[in-house]
Write a structure and sequence with these properties.
The chain is mostly beta strands. 13% of the residues lie in helices and 38% in strands.
């Protein structure tokens, strides 16, 4: 997921990218929801979906009521949605789907209380989810097919950011995630590259962030393992920024430390597990840098 907030002469837009893997277009959806309640009741939904009986995903707007269940908005026509949703691009390859579109979120050409309309200092919970569609809307996602924010955050602060080219934004921690290089040159050079951008190799402290890093790596670099900011010092694994080693996602049998020189850690975006490896591998890597808010 990658979202950018833009202000064009007082009219606000969200440039939305929704990405998923191991999925097919027909009868499925990927969606972003904005809610006042952490369980996503009464939430505004921006989706890329194909209803039952159609083959191609298109961007749409819908609503989750307080049951909660997803509903099509009564009276909202395709022509209405085309006025709010523009710049649509859909890419599908090898079971991976990337849906891009721009949504106008204020100064709307018509009024409908079930369509998200941005207000200054607006705060929302966020949900990214995927699942199947029905004749009437989106079905409930499975537990492992969603990522939800843990607290309300100002919409403009979430998305009104200026990340370097090639970086995506992680709202809960207000960090830009990415890399200026497709392939690194070992631990020291990779960390130096992150430092030049004002950050460091990614450090991971919970499952939510770990899943986001995996999703970002897959989107930006494909299915190859990426170096993260975890390194072994003697017998102790330490994060590059000195933060607490309070979360781990080692694959079974890891860290293996084969031949005694696998002192660096790599995340596999195919399963989000970690693997130990030598530090001089010429491999992909991900940096995290603090956001810079747009003015």
């Amino acid at each position: 997921m990658d979202i950018n907030f833009r202000n064009v002469s007082g009219t606000y837009y969200l440039d939305i990218e929704l990405f998923t893997r191991d999925y097919q277009q027909s009868g499925s959806y990927i969606a972003l929801a904005f809610a006042d309640h952490p369980e996503m009741w009464s939430s505004f939904v921006s989706e890329c979906s194909s209803m039952i009986g159609t083959e191609t995903m298109t961007p749409k707007i819908s609503y989750n009521n307080n049951r909660p269940e997803n509903i099509r908005i009564n009276g909202l026509t395709q022509d209405d949605m085309s006025k709010l949703l523009t710049n649509f691009i859909l890419t599908e390859a090898d079971g991976q789907i990337l849906c891009k579109f721009t949504q106008q979120i204020n100064n709307l050409p018509f009024k409908n209380d079930l369509i998200y309309s941005y207000k200054e200092e607006d705060e929302k919970y966020l949900l990214f989810a995927r699942g199947a569609t029905s004749l009437s809307g989106l079905t409930m996602h499975n537990y492992n097919e969603k990522v939800a924010s843990t607290y309300k955050t100002k919409i403009r602060r979430i998305f009104g950011v200026d990340c370097p080219s090639g970086f995506d934004y992680f709202p809960d921690w207000q960090l830009c995630i990415g890399s200026t290089l497709k392939e690194g040159d070992g631990w020291t050079a990779n960390e130096q590259s992150c430092f030049i951008e004002g950050g460091n190799l990614v450090t991971i402290h919970d499952a939510f962030y770990n899943n986001f890093i995996g999703m970002t790596a897959l989107k930006q670099m494909g299915s190859y393992r990426v170096m993260i900011g975890l390194k072994q010092n003697g017998t102790v694994w330490e994060w590059v920024d000195g933060s607490a080693f309070d979360y781990q996602r080692w694959a079974p049998g890891e860290p293996s430390n084969k031949d005694g020189d696998e002192d660096c850690a790599y995340l596999d975006p195919n399963n989000n597990n970690w693997y130990s490896g030598e530090c001089f591998y010429l491999t992909n890597f991900l940096c995290q840098i603090p956001l810079v808010l747009n003015k």
